[in-house]
Amino acid sequence: TGQGAGKVSGENITVTVELTDEQALALAQYLKRYTWTDVRQSAANDDEAYLMQEAFNAVRHSLADVGYSPR
């Protein structure tokens, strides 16, 4: 079960998603191209932005592990 907004447990979770090839490639491309400014504008504060960036990096690495690592 997930935690509500603002509740951070510090424990890792596993998220499984199904994507088409095109979706996976597009997401990998976005995660390669986003900037700190993009993240910071969407976050409530710097702490949340850093957490978002860490999550994006984890997803990017997972996509790379299954062959979606755009150059």
Describe this entry's structure for a reader.
- The protein has three helices and no strands.
- The mean pLDDT is 91.
- The longest helix is centred in the C-terminal third of the chain and has 20 residues.
- The termini are far apart.
- Helix 1 packs across helix 3.
- The protein is mostly helical and 71 residues long.
Helix content: 55-70%
> What letter string, H or E per element, gives the SSE order?
HHH
Strand content: under 5%
Give the beta-strand count: 0
pLDDT averaged over residues: 91
Largest sheet geometry: none
The helix-and-strand class reads mainly alpha
**Ends: how far apart?**
36 Å
How many distinct helices?
A: 3
Query: Would you identify the regions where 5 or more consecutive residues have pLDDT less than 50?
Result: none
Described by the principal axes of the CA atoms, the overall outline is globular
Which terms summarize this structure?
71 residues; 56% helix; 0% strand; 3 helices; mainly alpha
Question: What topology emerges from the helices and strands here?
Answer:
Layout: H1 21-33, H2 36-42, H3 46-65
Short description:
The chain is an all-alpha fold and about 70 residues long. It has helices spanning about 20-35, 35-40, 45-65. The N and C termini lie far apart (about 35 Å).
